[in-house]
Automatic annotation (TrEMBL):
Function statement: Catalyzes the interconversion of 2-phosphoglycerate and 3-phosphoglycerate.
Catalytic reactions on record: (2R)-2-phosphoglycerate = (2R)-3-phosphoglycerate
CDD domains: iPGM_like (cd16011)
Species classification: Bacteria, Bacillati, Bacillota, Tissierellia, Tissierellales
InterPro entries xrefs: Alkaline_phosphatase_core_sf, Metalloenzyme, Pglycerate_mutase_ApgM, Pglycerate_mutase_ApgM_sf
Membrane-spanning residues: none
Protein name, as recorded: Phosphoglycerate mutase
Length: 420
Protein backbone atom coordinates (compact mmCIF):
# COMPACT_ATOMS: atom_id res chain seq x y z
CA UNK A 1 0.00 0.00 0.00
CA UNK A 2 1.43 3.33 -1.13
CA UNK A 3 1.62 5.95 1.62
CA UNK A 4 1.05 9.63 0.81
CA UNK A 5 1.89 12.22 3.44
CA UNK A 6 0.16 15.48 2.52
CA UNK A 7 2.11 18.06 4.47
CA UNK A 8 0.78 21.60 4.69
CA UNK A 9 3.80 23.55 5.92
CA UNK A 10 3.15 25.67 9.01
CA UNK A 11 -0.47 24.45 9.11
CA UNK A 12 -1.14 25.08 12.81
CA UNK A 13 -2.24 28.57 13.86
CA UNK A 14 -3.82 30.60 16.65
CA UNK A 15 -7.41 31.86 17.00
CA UNK A 16 -7.98 35.47 15.90
CA UNK A 17 -10.87 37.91 16.40
CA UNK A 18 -10.79 38.84 12.69
CA UNK A 19 -11.84 35.20 12.06
CA UNK A 20 -14.51 35.26 14.79
CA UNK A 21 -12.20 33.64 17.31
CA UNK A 22 -11.25 30.78 14.98
CA UNK A 23 -7.91 29.72 13.50
CA UNK A 24 -7.48 30.01 9.70
CA UNK A 25 -7.96 26.23 9.32
CA UNK A 26 -11.09 26.29 11.49
CA UNK A 27 -12.47 29.31 9.61
CA UNK A 28 -11.69 28.21 6.05
CA UNK A 29 -14.30 26.41 3.98
CA UNK A 30 -12.56 23.08 3.33
CA UNK A 31 -15.11 20.45 2.22
CA UNK A 32 -12.45 18.02 0.95
CA UNK A 33 -10.42 18.05 4.16
CA UNK A 34 -13.63 17.67 6.17
CA UNK A 35 -14.76 14.75 4.00
CA UNK A 36 -11.45 13.04 4.69
CA UNK A 37 -11.79 13.85 8.38
CA UNK A 38 -15.18 12.08 8.61
CA UNK A 39 -13.38 8.93 7.40
CA UNK A 40 -10.21 9.34 9.43
CA UNK A 41 -8.56 8.48 12.67
CA UNK A 42 -7.71 11.94 13.99
CA UNK A 43 -5.80 13.66 16.73
CA UNK A 44 -3.04 16.07 17.52
CA UNK A 45 0.70 15.83 17.06
CA UNK A 46 3.42 17.58 19.03
CA UNK A 47 6.14 18.15 16.39
CA UNK A 48 8.94 17.61 18.90
CA UNK A 49 8.45 19.07 22.39
CA UNK A 50 5.45 20.94 23.73
CA UNK A 51 5.82 24.70 23.23
CA UNK A 52 8.99 24.47 21.16
CA UNK A 53 8.93 26.38 17.83
CA UNK A 54 10.68 24.48 15.04
CA UNK A 55 11.95 25.32 11.58
CA UNK A 56 10.80 23.23 8.64
CA UNK A 57 14.11 21.38 8.29
CA UNK A 58 14.18 20.27 11.94
CA UNK A 59 10.48 19.37 11.97
CA UNK A 60 10.92 17.23 8.84
CA UNK A 61 14.04 15.54 10.18
CA UNK A 62 12.01 14.40 13.21
CA UNK A 63 8.88 13.48 11.19
CA UNK A 64 11.02 11.28 8.95
CA UNK A 65 12.12 9.34 12.02
CA UNK A 66 15.60 10.78 12.66
CA UNK A 67 17.01 11.70 16.06
CA UNK A 68 17.92 15.36 16.62
CA UNK A 69 21.27 14.17 17.99
CA UNK A 70 22.07 13.27 14.36
CA UNK A 71 20.93 16.59 12.88
CA UNK A 72 23.79 17.92 10.77
CA UNK A 73 22.83 21.65 10.74
CA UNK A 74 20.79 23.61 8.24
CA UNK A 75 23.93 24.89 6.51
CA UNK A 76 24.51 21.44 5.06
CA UNK A 77 20.90 21.18 3.81
CA UNK A 78 21.19 24.56 2.08
CA UNK A 79 24.51 23.54 0.55
CA UNK A 80 23.00 20.26 -0.72
CA UNK A 81 19.99 22.11 -2.09
CA UNK A 82 22.37 24.20 -4.25
CA UNK A 83 24.28 21.10 -5.38
CA UNK A 84 27.45 22.28 -3.62
CA UNK A 85 29.95 19.44 -3.50
CA UNK A 86 30.21 18.45 0.16
CA UNK A 87 33.70 17.72 1.47
CA UNK A 88 34.73 15.76 4.56
CA UNK A 89 36.92 18.33 6.31
CA UNK A 90 34.66 21.29 5.76
CA UNK A 91 31.70 23.06 7.35
CA UNK A 92 28.97 24.94 5.49
CA UNK A 93 27.18 28.07 6.71
CA UNK A 94 24.23 30.05 5.38
CA UNK A 95 25.04 33.69 4.69
CA UNK A 96 23.44 36.94 3.60
CA UNK A 97 24.90 40.30 2.52
CA UNK A 98 23.93 42.90 5.10
CA UNK A 99 24.26 46.59 5.99
CA UNK A 100 25.91 47.37 9.34
CA UNK A 101 27.02 50.58 11.08
CA UNK A 102 29.67 50.95 13.79
CA UNK A 103 27.80 51.91 16.98
CA UNK A 104 29.46 50.34 20.01
CA UNK A 105 29.71 47.14 17.94
CA UNK A 106 28.28 46.49 14.49
CA UNK A 107 24.62 47.48 14.53
CA UNK A 108 22.61 45.75 11.80
CA UNK A 109 20.68 48.38 9.86
CA UNK A 110 19.40 45.79 7.38
CA UNK A 111 19.87 42.01 7.53
CA UNK A 112 19.41 41.69 3.77
CA UNK A 113 20.74 44.18 1.22
CA UNK A 114 18.06 43.07 -1.21
CA UNK A 115 18.77 45.13 -4.34
CA UNK A 116 22.32 43.92 -5.06
CA UNK A 117 22.82 43.00 -8.69
CA UNK A 118 24.55 39.75 -9.61
CA UNK A 119 27.53 41.80 -10.92
CA UNK A 120 27.82 43.59 -7.58
CA UNK A 121 27.62 40.30 -5.69
CA UNK A 122 30.39 38.83 -7.83
CA UNK A 123 32.56 41.91 -7.16
CA UNK A 124 31.92 41.71 -3.40
CA UNK A 125 32.75 38.02 -3.49
CA UNK A 126 36.23 38.81 -4.87
CA UNK A 127 36.92 40.95 -1.78
CA UNK A 128 36.38 38.07 0.67
CA UNK A 129 39.59 36.70 2.24
CA UNK A 130 40.55 33.27 0.91
CA UNK A 131 42.24 32.01 4.07
CA UNK A 132 42.65 32.75 7.77
CA UNK A 133 45.00 30.84 10.09
CA UNK A 134 44.92 27.26 8.79
CA UNK A 135 41.46 27.50 7.22
CA UNK A 136 40.38 28.25 3.69
CA UNK A 137 37.14 30.10 2.89
CA UNK A 138 34.98 29.84 -0.20
CA UNK A 139 31.66 31.60 -0.80
CA UNK A 140 29.09 30.49 -3.35
CA UNK A 141 25.87 32.22 -4.28
CA UNK A 142 22.63 30.30 -3.67
CA UNK A 143 19.63 32.55 -4.32
CA UNK A 144 19.95 36.33 -4.76
CA UNK A 145 21.84 37.77 -1.80
CA UNK A 146 21.94 34.42 -0.01
CA UNK A 147 24.89 32.10 -0.22
CA UNK A 148 26.84 29.23 1.28
CA UNK A 149 30.20 29.76 2.98
CA UNK A 150 32.54 26.77 3.04
CA UNK A 151 35.29 26.71 5.69
CA UNK A 152 37.86 23.99 5.19
CA UNK A 153 40.69 22.85 7.43
CA UNK A 154 42.20 19.90 9.29
CA UNK A 155 40.90 20.89 12.75
CA UNK A 156 37.36 21.84 11.76
CA UNK A 157 34.06 21.83 13.69
CA UNK A 158 30.46 22.83 12.96
CA UNK A 159 29.86 23.43 16.69
CA UNK A 160 30.03 27.20 16.33
CA UNK A 161 27.41 29.89 16.93
CA UNK A 162 25.86 32.37 14.49
CA UNK A 163 27.02 35.93 13.81
CA UNK A 164 23.49 36.67 12.53
CA UNK A 165 21.18 37.46 15.50
CA UNK A 166 18.21 36.58 13.25
CA UNK A 167 15.97 39.24 14.83
CA UNK A 168 15.84 42.91 13.78
CA UNK A 169 17.26 45.84 15.80
CA UNK A 170 20.30 43.94 16.94
CA UNK A 171 24.08 43.68 16.60
CA UNK A 172 26.40 41.28 14.80
CA UNK A 173 27.30 38.60 17.33
CA UNK A 174 30.76 37.22 18.08
CA UNK A 175 31.04 33.63 16.85
CA UNK A 176 31.61 31.27 19.79
CA UNK A 177 32.16 27.54 20.19
CA UNK A 178 28.58 26.23 20.55
CA UNK A 179 27.88 23.65 23.26
CA UNK A 180 31.46 22.52 22.89
CA UNK A 181 34.91 23.21 24.27
CA UNK A 182 36.80 21.18 21.69
CA UNK A 183 39.91 22.73 20.18
CA UNK A 184 38.35 22.37 16.73
CA UNK A 185 35.28 24.41 17.71
CA UNK A 186 37.43 27.06 19.44
CA UNK A 187 39.78 27.38 16.47
CA UNK A 188 37.04 27.36 13.83
CA UNK A 189 35.14 30.11 15.71
CA UNK A 190 38.33 32.15 16.11
CA UNK A 191 39.17 31.89 12.40
CA UNK A 192 35.65 32.88 11.40
CA UNK A 193 35.73 35.95 13.68
CA UNK A 194 39.00 37.09 12.07
CA UNK A 195 37.51 36.40 8.62
CA UNK A 196 34.42 38.51 9.45
CA UNK A 197 36.55 41.43 10.70
CA UNK A 198 38.51 41.39 7.46
CA UNK A 199 35.26 41.12 5.48
CA UNK A 200 33.84 44.20 7.18
CA UNK A 201 36.96 46.28 6.59
CA UNK A 202 37.26 45.25 2.95
CA UNK A 203 33.58 45.64 2.09
CA UNK A 204 33.12 48.90 3.98
CA UNK A 205 36.01 50.52 2.10
CA UNK A 206 35.03 49.00 -1.25
CA UNK A 207 34.28 51.08 -4.32
CA UNK A 208 30.95 49.31 -4.84
CA UNK A 209 29.68 50.35 -1.45
CA UNK A 210 30.97 53.94 -1.83
CA UNK A 211 29.06 54.12 -5.10
CA UNK A 212 25.93 52.60 -3.62
CA UNK A 213 25.97 55.14 -0.77
CA UNK A 214 26.43 58.03 -3.25
CA UNK A 215 23.41 56.76 -5.17
CA UNK A 216 21.33 56.66 -1.98
CA UNK A 217 21.38 52.86 -1.86
CA UNK A 218 22.02 50.67 1.17
CA UNK A 219 25.59 49.37 1.32
CA UNK A 220 26.36 45.65 1.64
CA UNK A 221 29.27 45.89 4.04
CA UNK A 222 28.94 42.65 5.98
CA UNK A 223 28.39 38.93 5.48
CA UNK A 224 26.10 37.53 8.20
CA UNK A 225 26.63 33.84 8.94
CA UNK A 226 24.44 31.20 10.55
CA UNK A 227 23.57 27.48 10.92
CA UNK A 228 26.95 25.81 10.45
CA UNK A 229 26.62 22.23 9.27
CA UNK A 230 28.84 19.31 8.39
CA UNK A 231 28.59 16.20 6.22
CA UNK A 232 26.56 13.73 8.27
CA UNK A 233 26.73 9.98 8.56
CA UNK A 234 23.02 9.11 8.32
CA UNK A 235 21.12 5.99 7.30
CA UNK A 236 19.18 6.82 4.19
CA UNK A 237 15.40 6.81 4.37
CA UNK A 238 14.94 3.46 2.62
CA UNK A 239 17.51 1.71 4.85
CA UNK A 240 15.84 3.19 7.89
CA UNK A 241 12.19 2.43 7.08
CA UNK A 242 12.27 -0.07 4.21
CA UNK A 243 10.31 2.36 2.05
CA UNK A 244 11.32 3.61 -1.38
CA UNK A 245 10.59 7.29 -0.95
CA UNK A 246 10.34 10.60 -2.72
CA UNK A 247 9.48 14.18 -1.92
CA UNK A 248 7.10 15.98 -4.27
CA UNK A 249 7.49 19.71 -3.71
CA UNK A 250 8.21 23.04 -5.32
CA UNK A 251 10.69 24.10 -2.64
CA UNK A 252 14.45 24.17 -2.83
CA UNK A 253 14.78 23.37 0.91
CA UNK A 254 12.84 20.15 0.33
CA UNK A 255 15.30 19.25 -2.43
CA UNK A 256 18.12 19.63 0.11
CA UNK A 257 16.28 17.44 2.66
CA UNK A 258 15.63 14.80 -0.01
CA UNK A 259 19.35 14.73 -0.89
CA UNK A 260 20.34 14.59 2.79
CA UNK A 261 18.17 11.52 3.42
CA UNK A 262 18.68 9.79 0.06
CA UNK A 263 15.08 10.29 -1.09
CA UNK A 264 14.15 11.06 -4.70
CA UNK A 265 12.81 14.51 -5.50
CA UNK A 266 10.06 15.46 -7.92
CA UNK A 267 9.49 19.16 -8.52
CA UNK A 268 6.05 20.51 -9.34
CA UNK A 269 5.12 23.89 -10.80
CA UNK A 270 1.61 24.05 -9.36
CA UNK A 271 0.15 22.26 -6.35
CA UNK A 272 -2.54 20.52 -8.46
CA UNK A 273 0.27 19.16 -10.66
CA UNK A 274 1.94 17.97 -7.43
CA UNK A 275 -1.23 16.07 -6.45
CA UNK A 276 -1.26 14.27 -9.81
CA UNK A 277 2.48 13.51 -9.67
CA UNK A 278 2.09 12.08 -6.16
CA UNK A 279 -0.73 9.79 -7.28
CA UNK A 280 1.05 8.67 -10.46
CA UNK A 281 4.56 8.07 -9.13
CA UNK A 282 5.71 4.64 -8.11
CA UNK A 283 7.05 4.81 -4.54
CA UNK A 284 6.19 3.23 -1.19
CA UNK A 285 6.22 6.62 0.53
CA UNK A 286 5.45 9.96 -1.07
CA UNK A 287 5.84 13.20 0.80
CA UNK A 288 3.60 15.76 -0.91
CA UNK A 289 4.65 19.12 0.45
CA UNK A 290 3.37 22.65 0.02
CA UNK A 291 4.96 25.75 1.50
CA UNK A 292 2.00 27.98 0.58
CA UNK A 293 0.32 27.71 4.00
CA UNK A 294 3.49 28.78 5.82
CA UNK A 295 4.17 31.62 3.40
CA UNK A 296 0.58 32.88 3.76
CA UNK A 297 0.99 32.91 7.55
CA UNK A 298 4.23 34.91 7.23
CA UNK A 299 2.28 37.73 5.54
CA UNK A 300 0.77 38.26 9.03
CA UNK A 301 -2.78 38.45 7.74
CA UNK A 302 -4.86 35.42 8.84
CA UNK A 303 -7.21 35.97 5.88
CA UNK A 304 -4.38 35.11 3.46
CA UNK A 305 -3.94 31.73 5.12
CA UNK A 306 -7.71 31.10 4.93
CA UNK A 307 -7.60 31.84 1.19
CA UNK A 308 -4.61 29.53 0.59
CA UNK A 309 -6.21 26.70 2.61
CA UNK A 310 -9.41 26.98 0.57
CA UNK A 311 -7.40 26.92 -2.68
CA UNK A 312 -5.45 23.85 -1.55
CA UNK A 313 -8.64 22.13 -0.47
CA UNK A 314 -10.19 22.69 -3.88
CA UNK A 315 -7.21 20.90 -5.53
CA UNK A 316 -7.02 17.71 -3.47
CA UNK A 317 -10.11 16.00 -4.94
CA UNK A 318 -8.14 13.19 -6.69
CA UNK A 319 -6.24 12.52 -3.46
CA UNK A 320 -9.50 12.27 -1.51
CA UNK A 321 -10.97 9.79 -4.01
CA UNK A 322 -7.85 7.62 -3.93
CA UNK A 323 -7.75 7.59 -0.14
CA UNK A 324 -11.44 6.80 0.25
CA UNK A 325 -11.12 3.99 -2.32
CA UNK A 326 -8.20 2.65 -0.26
CA UNK A 327 -5.87 2.88 -3.26
CA UNK A 328 -3.43 4.81 -1.05
CA UNK A 329 -2.90 5.31 2.66
CA UNK A 330 -3.15 9.03 3.30
CA UNK A 331 -2.01 11.15 6.23
CA UNK A 332 -2.63 14.89 6.40
CA UNK A 333 -0.86 17.20 8.83
CA UNK A 334 1.54 20.13 9.24
CA UNK A 335 5.15 20.20 10.36
CA UNK A 336 4.74 23.05 12.87
CA UNK A 337 2.58 26.02 13.81
CA UNK A 338 3.09 29.33 11.99
CA UNK A 339 0.96 32.02 13.67
CA UNK A 340 -0.46 34.39 11.07
CA UNK A 341 -0.31 37.35 13.46
CA UNK A 342 1.89 38.54 16.32
CA UNK A 343 5.68 38.68 16.60
CA UNK A 344 6.50 34.93 16.54
CA UNK A 345 8.02 33.52 13.34
CA UNK A 346 6.90 29.97 14.15
CA UNK A 347 5.37 28.86 17.45
CA UNK A 348 5.27 25.70 19.55
CA UNK A 349 1.64 24.48 19.61
CA UNK A 350 0.67 21.00 18.40
CA UNK A 351 -0.80 20.47 14.92
CA UNK A 352 -3.88 18.50 13.84
CA UNK A 353 -3.35 15.19 12.08
CA UNK A 354 -5.57 12.62 10.35
CA UNK A 355 -4.96 9.12 8.97
CA UNK A 356 -7.18 7.80 6.18
CA UNK A 357 -7.06 4.22 4.94
CA UNK A 358 -7.26 0.56 5.80
CA UNK A 359 -6.71 -0.45 9.44
CA UNK A 360 -7.57 2.96 10.91
CA UNK A 361 -9.97 3.21 13.83
CA UNK A 362 -12.15 5.94 12.34
CA UNK A 363 -13.34 8.22 15.14
CA UNK A 364 -16.08 10.80 15.55
CA UNK A 365 -14.40 14.04 14.41
CA UNK A 366 -15.96 15.50 11.29
CA UNK A 367 -14.08 18.75 10.64
CA UNK A 368 -10.32 19.11 10.28
CA UNK A 369 -9.06 21.77 12.68
CA UNK A 370 -6.72 22.40 15.58
CA UNK A 371 -9.44 22.12 18.23
CA UNK A 372 -11.85 19.67 16.57
CA UNK A 373 -9.00 17.16 16.28
CA UNK A 374 -8.38 17.30 20.04
CA UNK A 375 -11.60 15.23 20.26
CA UNK A 376 -9.95 12.54 18.12
CA UNK A 377 -8.26 9.42 19.44
CA UNK A 378 -4.60 10.20 18.79
CA UNK A 379 -2.02 12.00 20.92
CA UNK A 380 1.39 11.63 19.35
CA UNK A 381 4.82 13.14 18.76
CA UNK A 382 6.33 13.83 15.36
CA UNK A 383 8.85 11.07 16.04
CA UNK A 384 6.00 8.49 16.22
CA UNK A 385 4.83 9.10 12.66
CA UNK A 386 6.95 6.67 10.62
CA UNK A 387 6.40 3.79 13.06
CA UNK A 388 2.64 4.43 12.96
CA UNK A 389 2.61 4.46 9.15
CA UNK A 390 4.57 1.20 9.01
CA UNK A 391 2.04 -0.30 11.40
CA UNK A 392 -1.09 0.92 9.56
CA UNK A 393 0.25 -0.48 6.30
CA UNK A 394 1.22 -3.88 7.80
CA UNK A 395 4.95 -3.30 7.49
CA UNK A 396 5.95 -2.93 11.14
CA UNK A 397 8.45 -5.42 12.53
CA UNK A 398 7.47 -7.44 15.60
CA UNK A 399 9.55 -5.84 18.34
CA UNK A 400 12.79 -7.58 19.24
CA UNK A 401 12.86 -9.96 16.28
CA UNK A 402 16.45 -10.24 15.12
CA UNK A 403 16.32 -10.25 11.34
CA UNK A 404 19.88 -9.34 10.45
CA UNK A 405 22.47 -7.41 12.40
CA UNK A 406 20.36 -4.37 13.35
CA UNK A 407 17.09 -3.71 15.16
CA UNK A 408 14.61 -2.82 12.39
CA UNK A 409 11.28 -0.99 12.60
CA UNK A 410 10.02 -2.71 9.43
CA UNK A 411 9.80 -6.23 7.99
CA UNK A 412 12.80 -6.35 5.63
CA UNK A 413 12.20 -6.91 1.92
CA UNK A 414 15.47 -8.87 1.68
CA UNK A 415 17.12 -11.16 4.20
CA UNK A 416 20.63 -12.53 4.42
CA UNK A 417 20.09 -16.13 3.28
CA UNK A 418 21.97 -18.95 4.94
CA UNK A 419 24.00 -21.00 2.48
CA UNK A 420 24.50 -24.68 3.31
ZN1 LIG B 1 7.88 29.55 8.08
Amino acid sequence: MKIVLLLLDGLGDRPHSILKGKTPLEYANTPNLDRLCKNAETGIMIPWKQGLPLGTEVAHFILFGYDMKEFPGRGIINALSRDVEIEEKAVYLCTSWAWVEEKDGLFIEERFTEDLSTEEILELMKLLPKSVNNYSFKWQQSIGIHGVLEIKGENISSDISDSDPFYDNSYVMTVEPFESNSSSAIETAEALNIFLKKVYRALNASEINQKRKQNGKQPANFLLTKWAGRKPDLLNFEEKHGLKACIVSSGILMYGIAKLLGMDFIKYNSFSEGVNLALKSDYDFIHLHTKETDEAAHTKDPRNKVKVLEEIDSQIGPLVESALNEDIFLVVTGDHTTPSFGPMIHSGEPVPIMFIGKNTRVDYVDTFGERSCTRGSIRMYGSDLMQMLLNYTDRAQFYNYRQGSKQLNHIPKKINKFCP
